[in-house]
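input
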Amino acid sequence: LSLSLSLSLSPQMSKISETSPKHCAKKGGISINNCHKKLFFTFSTFFSGLLLIIFLIWLILHPEKPEFSLTEANIYTLNVSSSATHLLNSSIQLTLFSKNPNKNVGIYYDKLLVYAAYRGQQITPEASLPPFYQSHEEINLLTAYLQGNELPVVQSFGYQISRDRSAGKVIIGMKMDGKLRWKIGTFVSGAYRFNVNCVAIVAFAPNMTTAPLASLQGTRCSTTI
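output
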């Protein structure tokens, strides 16, 4: 007997689709990168908008620089100790007003250094004034006492002082260097350097021996930020 067995296999077999772990990781990496890009774009847009708002407020308010005026300068001592060593002894008292001309902007003065100069040469050490806050349109009175002992000066200093005495007046410069910050509402800006230059005309004659020698009139100072 012959037995014939016929096994028929279907030509259509089910396909098994399998994704490798490496392939999955690759897709996941792309998804994470896209997420990071979206977060970066969102934060960049937010901060750019915030900076734009601050800049627009700055343009609208546009703070004006502070105003300074020298009201009085008193010279107590200004003489060269020796014609050979050219060392200067000086003591000068300055009084000035500081005004904030802005209606909606306050000013923080963080650092103030004041000194006196004569013909472009510093004749006193720097004196530090205490920091303070100046509100809208506020006026403050500032005083500084400057004193220097045996400061080296140029050889022509004594001759120049004598010549100015003959002319009847001495021109003294007051210099101020400092840092300030603007306050707009709750926003406070970064620090800005500023310089103030004032000129005092002091009556000075050979027959005037009683101290102090006072300035003839007040002067308005120039301010640079």
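quick obs: The radius of gyration is 38 Å.
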